[in-house]
Amino acid sequence: MISNRQHFDAQLRDVKQNLTKMGVLVEESLAKATQSLKELQVPLALEVIADDRLVNKMEQEIDSQCATLIATQQPVATDLRKIISAIRIASDLERIGDLAVDIAKVTKRLDGETLVKPLVDIPNMARIAQQMIRDSIRAYIDEDIRLAKKMCEDDHQVDKMYKHIVGEILEAVPKQAAHAQQFMQLLFAGRYIERIADHATNIGESVVYIATGVREDLNQ
Cα(92)–Cα(99) distance, rounded to whole angstroms? Predict the structure, then answer.
């Protein structure tokens, strides 16, 4: 006969599995959105936008699982922190999915144009953000505080790259005023990736909270 504890652990494992799947999905969405922008592939951008419905559905399922756990198991201490953090992580992943959609919409807005120059810095930022999503979920699964805190230095790196992009664009706009709208859209894309890195860092904070009970600000 399965004990209440075993039943609780099994349900929590399901939540972890679903969060892992959601993490993989939003990481793929970011990769596709960035590729769509780099190559101005509108069909790929539309795929990212369509996939967002699945991301939203997964968040709702995880919220429902967690609500059931709280209602039926009345968890306390570490168990309660795990459930609350799972809800927060699902919310962060859902926002990452939304931001990937925002990048895909930039691709749509640039449809029919030719990029002033090949994109390099924005895809590089996106690669770091993708790794942060992977690492943050791995830190959650393994409850790895060291890996969770690494989000802080990765986020600094993304912030630094974004500032570099802003500087380059501000310098380029007066010289290439005809492309001002395109520069503005690329600036938005860079900002969306910078915010994605912030959400990955938030997941790191949730991992620290699970392990220690202390909310630590890694977005400094």
Answer: 11
- CA dist., res. 202 & res. 97, Å (int): 15
Find the helix packing angle between 180-212 and 4-39, rounded to 10°: 160
How many CB atoms sit inside 10 A of residue 186's CB?
A: 23
Q: What's the whole-model pTM score?
A: 0.95
In whole angstroms, how large is the CA radius of gyration of the chain? 19
CB 42 within 8 A of CB 108: yes
Residue in the block written with tokens 């936008």: 49
Decide if 110 contacts 188 (C-beta within 8 A).
no
Q: Could you report the per-residue pLDDT of 70-87, keeping only the tens digit for each? A: 998 888 888 999 999 999
Find out whether 161 and 121 touch, Cβ atoms under 8 Å: yes
190-209 burial code (b ≥16 CB/10 A, e <16)? bbbbbbbbbbbbbbbbbbbb
> Per residue in 86-114, is it b (16+ CB within 10 Å) or e — as a string?
bbbbbbbbbbbbbbbbbbbbbbeebeeee
CA dist., res. 30 & res. 27, Å (int): 5
The stretches in the chain having pLDDT less than 70 are: 1-2
Q: What SS3 state is found at 118?
A: coil
Closest CA to 40 of 127, 97, 114, 125: 114
Residues 190, 165: contact at Cβ < 8 Å? yes
- The answer to whether 137 touches 85, Cβ cutoff 8 Å, is no
